[in-house]
Design brief:
3 strands, flat, 22 helices, DNA polymerase, domain 1, mainly alpha
Length: 542
Amino acid sequence: MPDVYREWLAGLSDLSSGTRGHYGRGLRRIVVLADVEPAKLTPASLDSTTTGRALTELKRRVDAGKLKKDALDFALRALHSFFKYCKTVGHLGDLVVPDLDWLRAEQATKIVEAKAMPKIYHEWLSSLPHKEVTTTNYGQGLRRLVYFAKIPPAEFTHASLDPLTTEKAESTIRALGRSEAVLHQCRTAYLSFFEYCRANGLEVPDIDGHYLNLPEEDKMPKIYHEWTGSLTLLEEKPETTRLAYGQGLRRLVYFAKIPPVEFIPDSLDQLTVLEAVTEMRRHSVSKPALNLSLAALASFADYCEAKRLVAEIPDSRRIRKLTKLSAEQVDPKYYRPADLRDLFITAAASPDRHGVRWPVRDLAMCSFLAVLGLRASELCNADLNWMHKERLIEVKDGATWMLHVRGKGRKIRRLPLSDELVEANGRWQEAREERFGVPPSDAPLFVTYEGRRFNYQRLRYWLRRLNQEAALRDRSLHALRHTAGVRLAADGVPMNVIQSLLGHASISTTGIYTELVGDELVGVLNRSEVNGLLRDVLKQAK
């Protein structure tokens, strides 16, 4: 085989040696069946006609039992990967890459086209670690289940794959003689999809099949759809939030025993909601689900009140008190100083080979989360133009770098940055410019190894990898925010200053934050033990 083959195979370093072997054999089979002389193989050798002929023969041999059933799958994957590599290094020229998806119509195991799938499918797929093999396999696995479950793609939701539907789809796949690898691909995909949905507040079927038969969305009245539409259109909430709130309200309608067609804004009065929540408690509905339903109710009631559709709205706080349903408690987990030092040191160390880690960026991200106590969503949404230099107090060096954080409820809080935070960010921005060039002012403050904005799932995966490398138990992103609050309190910082720094709901904030706690807030981060740890690691990393 020629150099281009060996270079391509060597570039598959993120795959196991066994998988690389399958890819190599898959491409060599195509070369043999296409009657191409191995030493003269080029991308141009595998045009659409030649490739189609080779794949047809390969499928015939698989159907005849001469080759294993996964031989065709690996050959297709190898071709996709080979053409992608050739395009990246400039070997394709004007060659039109063959349409390898044509074979789907010939295969017994068909799958739904990706473009036909709804928005939540694409949001889930984009949240996965950015590897072509992962996104391709997971996407195919879920779409294969959707196909065999006979679910119209446009109607697919987080609730579509209930245990019975999934079992029937898997039985059909098995009856067609598909390999265990195909079934494993399907299971891995829908478990990943369920995990994504749960992380975004959506109720999905669990392993023992306990799932509520909530009213279907298309059976709900016009006011319901107008409200859910306003969540994304007017409030700019993500699709997962719209779905979660819709599910939360329909859960209340279900337990209140209100027929969907009879549901009106006045249906959920104080007494009705109280009885519905009490019934939910009797059925052991989880506290997160209960709180989500009450949050959805508050949003729906506010919408109806703004439209003057109701005279009085239910008091969610009173309902919580009467049903002994306290608000969801904040995760108490946080990093001890020794753990945080290990996390900082690991963040500044060499990256892994999978493109997840980037030391100079990782240390800056860890510091913004653990020193400033930013929410995960705030770090994901932060742009370069959130950074400003302002004069708060008379100091020798003049102005102070400030981060204008757009937090919950679109409120802005203005946080001064310590010298260590400014240095950590400066090092990261220099490395970023070397790789991607000078970014525009509205570009994300932090980006992935591919230059994309982080989303929650990518950020969560990044921290999980970092915890593993630091030999620490896994903690949530919110644990870093708690760490900031805990350490500031331990350093003797007044609680009202900590509330201002973290942007807790009990502090009324506006667009102008300069006067709020003034000198005290500017010196807070310099006194923080967490900031001191960052200072030590920055010195070591020079």
